[in-house]
Amino acid sequence: MKPAAPAIKLSSRATSEFWEIPVLHEDDHLLAIDKPACLLTSPDRYDPDRPNLMRLLHDGIAAGKPWAKERGLEYLSNAHRLDFETTGVLLLAKDRPSLVRLANHFGSETPKKTYLALVMGSPATDEFSIDLPLDQDHFEPGRMRVSRAGKKSFTAFKVIERFAGAALVECHPRTGRTHQIRVHLMEAGHPIYADPVYGGRQLMLSALKHGDYRLKHDREERPLIGTLALHAASLQLPHPATNELVRIQSPTPKVMQVALKYLRRYAPPLA
Q1: Catalytic residue status for 27
Q2: Which of 48, 137, 160, 201 is the most exposed place for a label (fewest CB within 10 A)?
Q3: In this structure, are residues 157 and 128 in contact, taking their beta carbons and an 8 Å threshold?
Q4: List of domains in the chain
């Protein structure tokens, strides 16, 4: 078995935050990482000083950090983006020609993207799709909305596991619009847990255990999953140099595994 590539260690002096980011796939042209929650992919247009992954990576390359030096990295650019709280597969190009080819793939809807979402409610059917155009919400910056004047947006969904009042759903976005999966699931009546922007509330253990839940008087209950319950689980696309299919996978985050464990124990599907 091929040994795992060493993790990439990043830190922000401004916020005193530290990230040890696993590498999911690496070759001469590609670097795929397992993006953590609560880290921007690229600079925030409203607050450019917030830590973001690409700036931290570029600073590390410029400073000759060990993870960059041992790889001989001089160039690194993201081929797509993940939301601030979304975890999972993020693909980077190690050279400009590879980036151009990857951009062409993503622009032509070639990549097969699979996300896992923990949603509120139980969908009526095991498989369904949402085909609704999306545009910026001009009244709420940073939010997207369904609009006839928006860009084509299509997502297919498949229920993987059902619970009482919740479901684990596999999401296959054909297009790559900002917040696409989140908006489409809201429109389907099943917002993602811990997504207040689009109607998703927190998943609390007290809500699952009902009267059996006890909390010490000096403690405050924390949600089972405190950040957006959306994970980029896999990405499949032609390799930019060889054109061979490459499939990159990311394991389900521990916080989502914990939430699923409690749902299985205390909220089994209704008969």
Answers
A1: no
A2: 48
A3: yes
A4: 1-108 (3.30.70), 110-271 (3.30.2350.10)
